[in-house]
Give the backbone structure.
Amino acid sequence: MTIDRKSPLALKAVLGYLLVIGVLQLAWPFLGFGTDHPDFEARSASYKAGAYFMQALIAAGYVAAAIGLLQRRFWAPSLTYLVLALSALSSAKGFSWGFAGGRPTREIYLSSLVLFLAWHAVLGSVVFRNRMLFKRSIPTGA
């Protein structure tokens, strides 16, 4: 681990958020939670498998980004931005379906999208402001 006491508190908070959300999303289906909307249940098995795979892939991205930030890897900020962007789209869709109790209206979906894009922009800006902590180490000649 390389995040130390001198690391900014906001960066530590983002790291913790990414790790907790990633682990919870990976465990979510196994804890008995998940989508129980009739529209989702009526879909084919391949559609459901794709939806669960996408959720697992984003969750694994959260965990990988958190570990990369923790170890101050040079690729960690880029992965964090990518995961936050993809997650904003996925989270907005899931939240709007849950909020509407079924198929959401366009207004509910767009409101959810704006909400998640704003939240993920805040998280991404914290990583961006601290990006100089994640320099690529170039070996010097021997």
Remarks:
- Residues 9-132 form one domain.
